[in-house]
Specification:
Elements lengths: L8 E8 L6 E6 L8 E2 L2 E3 L6 H13 L1 E14 L2 E13 L7 E7 L1 H9 L7 H7 L7
Parallel strand pairs: 1-6
Antiparallel strand pairs: 1-4, 2-3, 2-7, 5-6
Keywords: Hydrolase
Pfam families: NUDIX
Family: Belongs to the Nudix hydrolase family.
Length: about 140
């Protein structure tokens, strides 16, 4: 046993940048965090690896094909233990789907404005800053 309780829900997220250095974000259509901007991702389904879940979730929410790489960090939000992976976009067309009402690339100024307006999922900006994963542009 890995020490997690049965109430912990394992989730994954993808940290992806476009060639201009902008960060991929989705606006959550459902709770938790409905209406707020977040990294794309979601629950790991039974029998899935984290990396399989990242590929599936990012495609479902953004229409993009990704290759997950290094684990950047892990956060706990209530019952959700979220493992965020660096991702390389390999194809697809950016479009919101599944649990996302919108999807977009955000530069540094845009991300700061979303944080200032309270439109980011709680502590996302601080977490990305601490992980050195803010947009480069």
């Amino acid at each position: 046993m890995d020490g997690l309780t049965s109430t912990t829900i394992r989730c994954v997220g993808g940290i992806a940048f476009d060639p201009a250095g902008r960060l991929l974000l989705i606006r959550r259509a459902n709770d938790p965090g409905s209406g707020q901007w977040s990294l794309p991702g979601g629950r790991v389904e039974p029998g899935e690896t984290d990396k399989e879940a990242v590929v599936r979730e990012l495609f479902e929410e953004t229409g993009l094909d990704v290759i997950p790489g290094t684990l950047i960090g892990t956060v706990t939000r209530g019952p959700y233990e979220i493992h965020d992976y660096a991702c390389s976009v390999t194809g697809g067309a950016l479009t919101a789907g599944d649990d996302a009402s919108e999807a977009r690339w955000s530069d540094a100024a845009d991300l700061s404005a979303l944080e200032a307006a309270g439109e980011l999922v709680d502590l996302l900006y601080v977490t990305l800053r601490d992980w050195k994963a803010l947009p480069r542009a």
